[in-house]
Design brief:
- With 196 residues, the protein is an all-alpha fold.
- The chain contains eleven helices and two strands.
- It has a two-stranded antiparallel ribbon with strand order 1-2.
- The radius of gyration is 18 Å and the shape is globular.
- The two termini are 23 Å apart.
- The structure holds calcium ion (2 copies).
- One calcium ion binds next to strand 1.
- It comes from Cricetulus griseus (Chinese hamster).
- InterPro entries: Calcineurin_B_homologous, EF-hand-dom_pair, EF_Hand_1_Ca_BS, EF_hand_dom.
- This is Calcineurin B homologous protein 2.
Length: 196
């Protein structure tokens, strides 16, 4: 487990992970080394604590929520496949050109739509498919920092929800979320250079 492999073939399930994530062999190998370095106790999986060593996540206001997404269904550990799968959402779109794009395959994890889905679930904590006013408030609180008063935050939240809320139910559905981010360069915003 602890020995450093220099061949992608030594990564468990490498072909499957490659197909699923779109990472090249070389990138997967680099990610695998990163995974092994983060796994300081050579457990073969990463814990929440291990992931907190990633600088790009430590400085991201939503870093804790991104870390949560490595641990679906209350699990406490993530193996290499799960690690690569989450990071694939942050893979810059053009980095590895069209790789092995088979039209019968599902959309790549780093497509605009999948990046949006990933971003949406960072907001939608109770997973009911909508960002409630309170869920929006919590995210904005993380993002705006301490220089904003509670009252300002409340009104920013109201404005943000109202601007996106087309059907007037007081919450932001995935479609509304997508529309409100239409003009934003989500591909760029959601590209984190994790390998540095
Ligand atoms: Ca919700
Ligand atoms: Ca709505």
């Amino acid at each position: 487990m602890g020995s450093r492999s220099s061949h992608a073939a030594l990564i468990p399930d490498v072909d499957h992970i490659r197909r699923e994530t779109g990472f090249s062999q070389a990138s997967l190998l680099r990610l695998y080394h990163r995974f092994q370095a983060l796994d300081r106790e050579e457990k073969g999986y990463l814990s929440r604590l291990d992931l907190q060593q990633i600088g790009a996540l430590a400085v991201n206001p939503l870093g804790d929520r991104i870390i949560d997404s490595f641990f679906p269904n209350g699990s406490q550990r993530v193996d290499f496949a799960g690690f690569a799968r989450v990071l694939a959402h942050f893979r810059p779109v053009d980095e590895e050109d069209a790789t092995i794009r088979d039209p019968k395959q599902p959309e790549p994890l780093n497509s605009r739509m999948n990046k949006l889905r990933f971003a949406f679930q960072l907001y939608d904590l109770d997973r009911d498919g909508k960002i409630s006013r309170n869920e929006m408030l919590q995210v904005l609180r993380l993002m705006v920092g301490v220089q904003v008063t509670d009252e300002q935050l409340e009104s920013i939240t109201d404005r943000t929800v109202q601007e996106a809320d087309e059907d007037g139910d007081g919450a932001v559905s995935f479609m509304e979320f997508t529309k409100s981010l239409e003009k934003m360069n989500i591909e760029q915003k959601m590209s984190i250079r994790i390998l540095k």
